[in-house]
Give the backbone structure.
Amino acid sequence: MLQWTCSLGAQVVFLDDFESYLKPARDLGMVTIHVQDTNTALKELEKVTGTQLLHPKAPLPITCNPSDLSHGYVTIKPGVHLHFVELGSGPVVCLCHGFPESWFSWRYQIPALAQAGFRVLAMDMKGYGDSSSPPEIEEYAMEVLCKEMVTFLDKLGIPQAVFIGHDWAGVLVWKMAVFYPDRVRAVASLNTPYMPGDPKVHPMEAIKSIPVFNYQLYFQEPVSACWDPAAAGFPPASRPVRSVCRWDAAAQAAMALRVAVFGLGGVLTLPSVADSLSRTEEALALPRGFLHEAFQKEGLNGPTAHLLRGEITFSQWVPLMEDSYKKHFEVAGILLPKNFSVGQIFSKAMSARSINRPMLQAALALRKKGFTTCVLTNNWLDDSVERGSLAQLMCELNQHFDFVIESCQTGMIKPEPQLYKFVLDTVKASPSE
């Protein structure tokens, strides 16, 4: 779960998706907003901050239907082919998608470019979609990928093309311009600036120096491998708070203190644990609310509280919760189903989480107006094989908020009042009573 805080004048605004977590914030003099749905919460946030956060949605551009496009396959060499879709006529524009996507990522740009008088070729890059995915790592070396793009052009009889890349493919289109300038009419890269190679620095070391790319280190290991976060350059669990302050101290002192604190439940779109438990109850023909009741009985001294305080790890938490549910089943006189798994229930819920983009955009808008932003997340010390998703989440949060506070690093959890005081101390806020 995650909360968000924002302060105007000498007041702090605290947002959370659990009503019970808002009371300690109100007791400290904070303005609180219960996040039940994003739009309603943002409207309330607009009122208390005086900042426009909601904007009328512009109509989406014309998209394309896959069945209406011409699909083609070019054999690069035995066992390797590239799939692409084509629309329009004129100078060739080759669209190269990023990770983890497909040609369909360009569905809005394909009709627009074709209508503007270009022949559009939108690729399924090697390893994606309907293109070949050879298992050998060497098949994905940049020199190999660029050479295969030249072969692709040759087999279609195209002497020169405009290359537009997004994300990982941005690196490829830049390299195409370096290695094969005669085949590149123009090059454009979305969100991937040109970064010349440095022969003195190993690529993996360069990635370690840029936290947003740390998730790529995770992919260097087999899925089944036991991954060590420290080896990938992540801070050790003993670090009390991961925080990033992105403004000048003098500028901060010159303005009135204004802080926004978000709870993770307000920043993430989470299929809630309650929803996961309800689906499990239905699948196992259990009484409605049975599993949720057992989960709620834990309180501040149950296994989940110990997990969120960082006192135990995720793998240690699972058997404790299994035992807790077993006792609940026994008291109710219900036989525990053989296929019941607490670990699976929570892993599915956590792996399905995604960033709530409108809420992040609101945080960005408030920062532009001079607000300090903080996100309070009930993370845990994750020693499971799925910890990469948590690491990737933390990288993104650190980019969008001035302060990121993890409960497992503080030894406190919501709704413990001392955690809320810790937040105020961290953001240097003193809300009025």
The CA atoms of residues 17 and 35 lie 4 Å apart. Residues 66-190 form a domain with the Rossmann fold fold (CATH 3.40.50.1820). The longest strand covers residues 70-77. Confidence is low (pLDDT under 50) at residues 223-257.
